[in-house]
Specification:
Length: 421
């Protein structure tokens, strides 16, 4: 009983993100309970939260050595490998957990989330559908289903799942926020505003919801909303990532009242903080661009690719250009044609080519990239032409023309000042 009470206190500390104290307490208890698997697993969870991934891995291996069927250890091991970007090992760990319990919701949720991350939406949907009845009452299940359908460009089904998620757990501000985002995509500003406001009522410090709200509603600087946002900038408990959203929200508010000096100041502060968080390096980007060009020159340019086995009749239309250069407008115009489907920004080409750029067998891997991309286009629509307007595709134009010699490429150019502002 005393051990359970102590574990509950540790779990409270964990929920409060007081990881250092939680770890100290659990280490103290483990001195007298060295083989308590629940304690060791809880310790691994704390270490994962502290980003001490290798230590967590060692603790989990201890558990598996003692009890090879301890399912929670495999779930946490999957998280460890996921964080290490060892996706195959993460998948294997979750699948091992499912061998122990084929209806383990946490294993399937984590597996689906991983599949979404590596752009294998069809596999995520397959896993989620296998627990449709068991997980129907859980809002996170519907959030994942909605994200799958968003990736599949099926916004009606995504909206339906976000509505169900909100019904199942109306006290979760994230559900209202995601619903608001759906309505923004649908062009329904009134419903978007309502849902963002609901999210803010549940969490008055919801920075991203404030930012989203300023994009669909003009906020007066004398309003309570504005007075709520301003003090959050100086709140030490607000994460830097959230402060970026607050700066951008304030920038939008001042732009709305034509106070461009304050608007620019807040935009500049937000951009500087975001740059600090992202640790952006122009040098790294330049190096990556040079690698892309070098691999193309020596391995891809003169490569002969057999296109005779291509079954798909889809023709990609790549719209390239800087952000705010008019790529969305061009997509809207072209997709009005009844044989063209607007796919938006598809990250498949960029992500898949990034994975194989250092591969010694890149010449063969190119075929796999083409196959995955065309299968994705086939799932989107039965129309013959699919638009992909991801800006980063400009890096891969040579590769694209090699993989899809029949593709169409449109390059949009706009005055640089208009691009920036």
């Amino acid at each position: 009983m005393l051990l359970n009470d102590a574990l509950k206190k540790i779990q409270i500390l964990f929920a409060e993100k007081n990881y250092v104290l939680a770890l100290a307490k659990i280490n103290k208890i483990l001195k007298k309970n060295k083989k308590n698997l629940d304690l060791i697993n809880n310790k691994s969870s704390i270490l994962i939260a502290m980003e001490r991934i290798d230590e967590a891995h060692n603790e989990l291996q201890k558990i598996i050595k003692i009890e090879p069927n301890f399912i929670e250890a495999y779930i946490n091991l999957g998280i460890v490998y996921h964080k290490k970007k060892l996706h195959k090992k993460a998948i294997d760990s979750y699948e091992r957990a499912l061998e122990i319990d084929k209806k383990s919701l946490q294993s399937i949720f984590n597996l689906a989330s991983l599949y979404l991350e590596i752009d294998q939406c069809e596999l995520a949907l397959e896993k989620l559908n296998s627990i449709y009845v068991e997980a129907y009452s859980i809002d996170y299940f519907h959030q994942l289903m909605a994200e799958c359908y968003i990736r599949e460009l099926n916004y009606d089904k995504a909206l339906a799942h976000h509505i169900i998620a909100t019904e199942k757990n109306p006290n979760n501000p994230l559900n209202w926020f995601l619903l608001g985002v759906d309505y923004v995509w649908a062009g329904d500003k009134s419903n978007a505003e309502y849902n963002f406001m609901q999210a803010i009522k549940l969490n008055p410090k919801y920075a991203e919801a404030y930012f989203a709200l300023t994009k669909v509603k003009d906020i007066d600087i004398s309003s309570n909303l504005f007075k709520n946002i301003l003090p959050l900038i100086g709140d030490e408990k607000i994460a830097e990532r959230d402060k970026v959203f607050l700066y951008f929200a304030l920038s939008n508010i001042y732009e709305g009242i034509k106070d461009y000096e304050h608007s620019f100041q807040f935009m500049d502060s937000g951009n500087k903080l975001r740059k600090k968080i992202q640790q952006y390096s122009f040098k790294n980007d330049l190096s990556f661009s040079e690698k892309i060009q070098s691999v193309y020159k020596f391995k891809i340019k003169n490569l002969t690719i057999d296109h005779s086995k291509v079954i798909s009749k889809k023709t990609p239309i790549f719209i390239l250009g800087m952000p705010r250069s008019g790529t969305s407008l061009i997509e809207q115009i072209i997709s009005n044609n009844n044989v063209v489907f607007g796919g938006g920004e598809l990250n498949t080409i960029h992500e898949e080519l990034k994975k194989i750029i250092d591969s010694p067998t890149i010449e063969n891997d190119i075929d796999f990239v083409r196959e995955r991309y065309l299968k994705k286009l086939d799932r989107f629509s039965d129309k013959n032409y699919i638009i992909d307007k991801l800006p980063l595709n400009f890096l891969w134009v040579g590769y694209i023309l090699k993989i899809f010699p029949y593709a169409k490429i449109i390059h949009t150019i706009r005055d640089p000042i208009a691009n920036c502002f």
